[in-house]
Amino acid sequence: MTYKEIEKIAIENGWTTTSDATLYRIEKEYEDNTNYIVVGKFNRNVIFFKNEMCTPGDFIVIKAAIKLAETPIGERIPEEKFYLKHRWMKFQGNKDTEKYYRLNIATGIPYLGSNFQDEDDQTEFTKKEIEDIKKKYKTSLEDYELVEVEDGQR
């Protein structure tokens, strides 16, 4: 479970999230009380609850918070992913959307196309995967710019 995943679950169920250097806090205010869950950021399996009532949505958030607490610290923040967008190549019809590095998963053959990720092609790459591409093809990829994949694009 990542912090982004639990934040989405919390918001969907009417909770808010805050974070500081050592704690991740999830809370929901009711008319006469506030329920909260606090998960430690530096110790696995550390969680605190104050829960006076529990709706079905609250139960979903509690289960997600337990999963977060059980998740190893290094896995709570997902690795950044990037698109590789060609800097200068022009395509028929000047389609700016068809300038992205795509890797066919079955054949391992790269080509340019849209940044739409599907089951056949990989279009989102971690920095390590980009370094592996550079080594495999003996290229600097200087004709490509790194475009960070936003959460809404996934």
What do these coordinates show?
- It is a single chain.
- This protein is an alpha+beta fold and 154 residues long.
- It contains three helices and nine strands.
- The chain has helices spanning 3-12, 56-70, 127-137, and strands at residues 16-19, 23-29, 34-40, 47-50, 82-86, 100-104, 110-113, 121-122, 144-148.
- A four-stranded antiparallel beta sheet has the order 1-2-3-4, with helices on one face.
- α1 runs antiparallel to α2 (56-70).
- It is elongated.
- The protein starts with a helix and ends in a 6-residue tail after the last strand.
- The model has no long low-confidence stretch (mean pLDDT 90).
What's the helix and strand layout?
Layout: H1 3-12, E1 16-19, E2 23-29, E3 34-40, E4 47-50, H2 56-70, E5 82-86, E6 100-104, E7 110-113, E8 121-122, H3 127-137, E9 144-148
Helix pairs in contact: 1-2
The biggest beta sheet reads:
4 strands, antiparallel
Unreliable stretches: none
Using the CA coordinates, give the radius of gyration.
Answer: 21 Å
- Total beta strand runs: 9
Helix content: 10-25%
Order of helices and strands: HEEEEHEEEEHE
Walk across the major sheet and give the strand order: 1-2-3-4
Distance between the termini: 16 Å
Number of helices: 3
Mean pLDDT rating: 90
**SS content category:** alpha+beta
Instruction: Report the portion of residues in β strands.
Output: 25-35%
Rough outline = elongated
